[in-house]
Amino acid sequence: CDLLPQGCTVLCALSGGADSMALLWSLYLLRDKLSITLEAAHFNHHLRGEESQRDEEFVVTFCKTHGIFCHLGGTQVKTGEKGLEAAARTARYAFLQSLSGKIATAHTADDNAETVLMRMVRGTGLKGLGGIAPVRENIIRPMLTVTRKEVLAFLKAEGISYVTDSSNETDAFLRNRIRHHVMPLLKQENPSLSRNLSATALRLRQDA
Q: Which pTM does this prediction carry?
């Protein structure tokens, strides 16, 4: 397809979590059909001590087992003017952009819905309500129409393990508070909230 021209190299941004493992495994299964060279890229933010090292070792072992070349990067991320999450994201994307190839990230419909709600809370315009871009320069996000529930079902069916980031359990970040408290309430009103809100975001992005 246009997003993945035949013969291109695809770098899967791989944290070791459920979403990124689902993306990596999907691309691995489709690599011959898509005629792509699949590689992985893991960035260690060194924010969770031994857990961060565990994630890196898990990723390296999985990739080695399946013959996937894995690029490793990392730095001790420190809180910047816009907070720790923003500083970590900036460092991670700087590493990814230093590599050659299409960068595939595992943002899901749930991530997109959360992003739209976060921007509504903070105040935004039409562009902000467009959520996460499906394509931005050499970055592609193939899973924006896939829900987290579908991700977990796929991993279970395929027998693929993953690691869990303990920082996702805290309410210290706005995204986590929305994920833990707001999304469940809204999903009681509409179980298809994530998919529908993500589709709405795409239409608003096209309007913008």
A: 0.92
